[in-house]
User: Fold this.
Amino acid sequence: MTTDLRYPVGKYQRPKSELSAAERSAMIDAIAATPAAMRAASRGLNAKQLSTPYRDGGWTVRQVVHHVPESHMNAFIRMKLGLTEEHPTVKPYDEAAWAKLGDAQGPIGASLALMDSLHERWVRLLKSLEEKDFQRTYFHPENGDQSLAVVTVNYGWHSRHHVAHITSLRKRMGW
Ligand code: NI
Assistant:
């Protein structure tokens, strides 16, 4: 078995069939658990450790921590657009370029706090949705039509994916 350090929890699998309410609720729980999981994953790391790439050529731990709320702010806004407009086209963004901007080089505390409040709002939104709301869609120019149910699975995965970048690095480094 080969280990691909990029995908510590496996690659994202777009669900092929409708999700049950229980499956969806497990994904919402994963999103809800992420701020605390990220805080725990990055707890006690010093500046040099935070500046270490999680794999050769990959983002540093610091960039991973900053990336997650950046990605999830986009996701939250796309979901709200999907809920309030008829099949809107959403805006992709260049996540690699965002990760190089100055604010993504600073201390991680602000991003951990951002994640706390963002996920509180996001999970409150997700838990307020009815079945028909999860069937609403938006169009992503690179990924095609997405239902909010599919987006929820995607970000449940995405949350675990990036936390595992840090926890698996710590394990390998013995930190
Ligand atoms: Ni990501």
Notes: The chain has one domain: 34-173. The CA atoms of residues 53 and 60 lie 4 Å apart. The pocket of nickel (II) ion is lined by residues 67, 71, 158, 162 (CB under 6 Å).
